Amino acid sequence: MSAMNYRKYASYPQVGLTDRTWPDKTITRAPVWCSVDLRDGNQALPIPMSVDEKVEYFRLLVSVGFKEIEVGFPSASATEFAFVRRLIDNHLIPDDVSIQVLTQSREHLIRRTFEAIQGAKNAVVHLYNSTSRQQRDIVFRMSCEEIISIAVAGTRLVRELKEASGNPGIRFEYSPESFTGTELNYALDVCHAVMEEWGASAENKVILNLPSTVELSTPNIYADRIEWFCRNISNRDAAIISVHAHNDRGTAVATSELALMAGADRIEGALFGNGERCGNMDIIIMALNLMTQGIDPKLDFSDLPHIREVYSRCTRMTVHARQPYSGELVYTAFSGSHQDAISKGMKAHKRSPDGIWDVPYLPIDPQDVGCTYEAIVRINSQSGKGGIAYVLEKDYGILIPKWMQPDFGNAVQEVADRTGDELSPEQIHELFQKEYIGSTSPYQLKKCNISWSDEDPEHIDEVSTLISCSVLGPKGEITFKAKGNGPLDAFVRGMVSHTGIEFHVDEYSEHAIGHSSDALALSYIRLAFENGVLSCGSGIDSNISLASIKAIVSALNRSLRS
Ligand code: KIV
Ligand code: ZN
Hints:
Elements: E1 32-35, H1 37-43, H2 51-64, E2 68-72, H3 78-89, E3 98-104, H4 107-117, E4 123-130, H5 133-140, H6 144-165, E5 170-177, H7 184-198, E6 206-212, H8 219-232, E7 239-245, H9 252-261, E8 266-269, H10 283-291, H11 304-315, H12 336-351, H13 385-396, H14 405-419, H15 425-437, E9 444-452, E10 465-473, E11 476-484, H16 487-499, E12 503-513, E13 520-529, E14 534-541, H17 544-559
Parallel strand pairs: 1-8, 2-3, 3-4, 4-5, 5-6, 6-7, 7-8
Antiparallel strand pairs: 9-10, 10-11, 12-13, 13-14
Helix pairs in contact: 2-3, 2-11, 4-6, 6-7, 8-9, 12-13, 13-14, 16-17
């Protein structure tokens, strides 16, 4: 027996469209977008936006590239009305942008809506009434015919007021609100009646918005409904089919995408998915989903951090750290294997001849949406050596060789495990310095002089490099002169014979840091000791030989650390 009372719920009806075609369709271009942030988004806020905030948000939407923006419900409140008037009176609406205003199908509200949009060059009057069985039976207690007559009466008044205004820039949208709870045949009947009243034609299209007012089924069923509707509508050319999906089941984006495949032309939604209850469909996600398929989204989300800042300030809402594309952590990998793959992918991308983005774990280049590569790899106890090396390379130009990465990885892991905290790039760099570079105990190089017995490089023989050193050790200062086939070899020979510790250089690597004449050399050494112990070290100096000798001292010291 389940602990949950699932028997309380009934399953959503299928459409019975067995010859559906939408699953074989591909989205190849962006739909007509309509932002409902300032209406549906705003009406869902605990503290609705002020007129000034709405103006700022409107400008943001325009800058993103929206050509249709539902700006409010002007008959519903003084603020809403004042905002629409501010937009029109202050000429804030670009000529190629249509504002959209929502109204219930009630005479005084429709009249007030027309007062609000007077003087607007382009406006969509969006009329709605609820058509679902629930709303008819429980809320309004009206028959199907009565509901249709409300829609038709509202449409008639909108048509008359448009005619009276003489404004050809006024268009009409009708929503059978709670469409997802409405029997399909009946929803089509209502829409047919509205289209007839409007006189809809290919030249005078009506926008039919079929909202997923409450998301009640899997997205494929909604897509079936849209395909069925598009096939059965009497004059498909006379309607722009629009979708307005809410996110009650968390699938509003999929609902909108599949609806597009099923024949919809237009998509309503809001930035970051703001809207009633679980929100409206997040337009950022849907647009960037298109972009990641190589389709021009026709909206500009190249500065998501700025958009997020304006959004959060005006709406007082936060964006979840895991929100697709726009969340703070969505381009960040903490896990070692992810970091390794990303780091390899980023390098491969730099060499890619066609420039096509193909980086594991990153479906989009963070830079395309205004994010930097800074946060891609962050280090905590879950991270691996590859990620640590990536951070040092990206932020400090330190290219730890592969054979040394496990050594430093262990040092970082130890700190991360002990503190339980994330380590910033600065902390990792500091740790690198502390572990390798600043090491002076028990041995510290005090002086080092290198000379060559034969200045002609062609004739340098095996032991032509002379070194004269002073090294402070646990038993006092050691001063020695030694010969070798290079400075490193000479230094190792000298140290081995004066300390009695047997070791040789097992691995060596170096590179420059910086490009100018004052560039520094960074050397990495791995020493192998008699007893099989391996120890890594690193040294930095303007002189490459000295950098390597310092790296030997660093590796020696680390091997002697208790
Ligand atoms: O969700 C909805 O159905 C609406 C309508 C007013 C279109 O917001
Ligand atoms: Zn809505």
